[in-house]
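Data deposition worksheet. Section B asks for the primary sequence of the deposited chain exactly as it was used as input, without tags or linkers unless they were present during the calculation. Section C holds the resulting structure in token form. Section D is free text for depositor observations; keep each observation to a single sentence. Incomplete worksheets are returned to the depositor.
Section A, Depositor: J.P.
Section B:
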Amino acid sequence: MARPPSLLTLARRALRGEAALARGSTVVVATSGGPDSIALLHVMAKLEGELDVRVHAHGIDHGLRAEAARELDLAEELARSLGVPFARTAVTVTPGANLHARARRARYDALADAARAVDATAIATAHHADDRAETFLLRLLRGAGAGGLAVLPARAWLEHGRGVELVRPLIRARRTDVVAHVERHRLPFAEDPSNRDPRYLRSRVRAELVPLLEELGPGIVGHLEALADELVEVREGRGEPLALPRATQRALAALLRAETTQTRQTGSGKMAVWLPGGLVVSRAEDGREERVTTAEPRGEGSPTPPRGPMLPGAGQRRRSP
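Section C:
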């Protein structure tokens, strides 16, 4: 059985793909001293030369916990050992309603200022797939619509960031990948006790809801991640929702591009793939539209499907209860 990719490999793939940074650019790594940001700082320092980017680390002290300054000391010590410049900003967030939301806004405003101070075009944060699943569930519990569920994409423009982009190099990694990395490299880190405080809904989602969902369906984090990806594409105008599993959509797109024996000319200027359950997916014959855009039941007058096997396991309709 093949070994799963390391955190370094997962970050490298993201930084060469969906979270790519321009060569010669500067990126600020948001660093708190917790395991996730410590792992990200270590990974970014390792990839700095390979990616031809300049890495700076920056920590934010919200003034809410006395331990925060000592945690940032840990981050600064690691940054210095890796040859990465480190700076910190103290912000004031008064206790009260919407504390986490206000702290988040203050944090990103300070990070944007720090990025502009070193002429950085991007801020890298340590969000990973488990964070994404938790955020999706939190938004769902609060009644968010499709746009609100398009959470934590690999890259996004920072709100009020005035041209600073947000990238998430670890977004395809699991929390277990992060833990394995910090243990393997013996990286010192601090734990924020508020992450385990049941007074906060996110803590309960992490400690109670996600484990229950994983018990019922071990692939739930991946399913939520794929759904968030789809909703990001829809929000950005790069796709539209389909009533097909994501793996099936990818298989269909590959079949259409290859024009395999599963496809045939329909006589109406389109190419089509027939699926079990009476579904047909088509695209323009000239190939200008490669993305699968629709899945419709075959009706009267629709072209006859080709002989031979259908795409295995694709497009099966769920029976109504």
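Section D:
The mean pLDDT is 82.
The longest helix spans residues 99-117.
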